[in-house]
Amino acid sequence: MMVSVERLEEYSCDLPQEPQGQPLQVGIIGWLTQGSVEFQDVVLVYRPGLPNALDRVTFCVQPGEKLGIVGRTGSGKSSLFMVLFRLLEPTAGRVLLDGVDTSQLELAELRSQLAVIPQEPFLFSGTVRENLDPQGLHEDRALWQALDQCHLNEVIISVGGLDGELGERGRNLSLGQRQLLCLARALLTDAKILCIDEATASVDQKTDQLLQQTICKRFANKTVLTIAHRLNTILNSDRVLVLQAGRVVELDSPSILRNRPHSLFQQLLQSNQQSSQPPPAGR
Q1: pLDDT of 22 strictly over 90
Q2: What is the DSSP track for 216-277?
Q3: How far is CA 237 from CA 34, 37, 228, in A?
Q4: By the 8 A CB rule, do 243 and 76 touch?
Q5: Domain annotation for the chain: domains and CATH numbers
Q6: For residue 265, pLDDT beyond 90
Q7: Averaged confidence pLDDT in the chain
Q8: What is the DSSP string of 75-120?
Q9: Which residues form the ABC transporter domain (predicted)?
Q10: Beta bridge partners of 40
């Protein structure tokens, strides 16, 4: 019994609380109307003694721009999103959304303005409705419209409609269907900025195409930041940000980078293409 109490205290009492930032000021209510993103000399250190996960990262994304983010494992790709959502606070530098320093915003307000499609689709035990619209903000018609746009109508009907139970982590849906449901949830937020964290890394080619088509059509006027595992998914981006050891080493259009001699993006693209080729048939 005492061991259980000690464990409960360890996990519930000693965890550091997230800094909340400041309540919205009158001058910045309704602040995110365009969708620009700017990192200014951002440094992130996970703990003392480790190399910088982000090392003076500076770049700007214009409203409505589609930015691909690439780099080898450990280059800092996911760290960018951790800082953007303030899951981790930067050691130095700042992030601006439409010119507003995100550290000055309450966490709930900041995160409510960002949509994300994670690498591992996040679903919980409950109904389709609860997973799509946790706060109950939308009418059934809007929910079905979002599902239709993500090619999920028939699937959701088969599990009992909006009130059908999904089970833990959406276990009665395939991985691709879970990812599409996360996309439908993102559509409903009407956020100005969509963050995609290698969302197609584990899905089949057909689901990958459905995701790309829906994102291209429904987020045409939104800012989209995409961490790419399959580099072909970001070849139509406006620009590509290439990270290495936490630093920005290249930032330009995909066509320029892939044709630039000795560019890191060109090397990553060649490596990606080689790894996706099927092995030679045995004799």
Answers
A1: no
A2: HHHTTTSEEEEE-SSGGGGTTSSEEEEEETTEEEEEE-HHHHHHSTT-HHHHHHHHHHHHHS
A3: 19, 16, 11
A4: yes
A5: 30-120+176-274 (3.40.50.300)
A6: yes
A7: 85
A8: SSHHHHHHHHTTSS--SEEEEEETTEEGGGS-HHHHHHTEEEE-SS
A9: 37-270
A10: 94
For every residue of 268-281, DSSP letters joined together read HHHHHHHHHSPPPP
| 138 pLDDT above the threshold of 50 | yes
Instruction: Say yes or no to pLDDT of 88 above 90.
Output: yes
pLDDT digits (tens, 9 = 90+) for 211-251: 788 888 888 899 999 998 778 888 989 999 999 999 999 99
What Å distances lie between residue 35 and 31, 82, 222, 225, CA to CA? Answer: 10, 18, 7, 11
SS3 category, 179 = helix
How far is 57 from 44, CA to CA, in rounded Å? 9
Query: What sign does the dihedral 225-231-235-236 (CA atoms) show?
Result: negative
Distance between CA atoms of residues 224 and 194, nearest Å: 5
d(CA 183, CA 212): 10
Give 15's pLDDT tier (boundaries 50, 70, 90): very low
Helix (H, G, I), strand (E, B) or coil at 157: helix
* Cα separation values, 226 from 66, 173, 272, Å: 8, 24, 16
Rg (CA), the chain: 20
DSSP state of 126: S
Strands 100-101 and 114-117: what pairing? unpaired
Q: What is the C-alpha separation between 2 and 276, in angstroms, rounded?
A: 53
pLDDT exceeds 70 at position 201: no
Contact 42, 94 (CB under 8 A): yes
* Closest among 71, 192, 26, 159 to 181, alpha carbons compared: 159
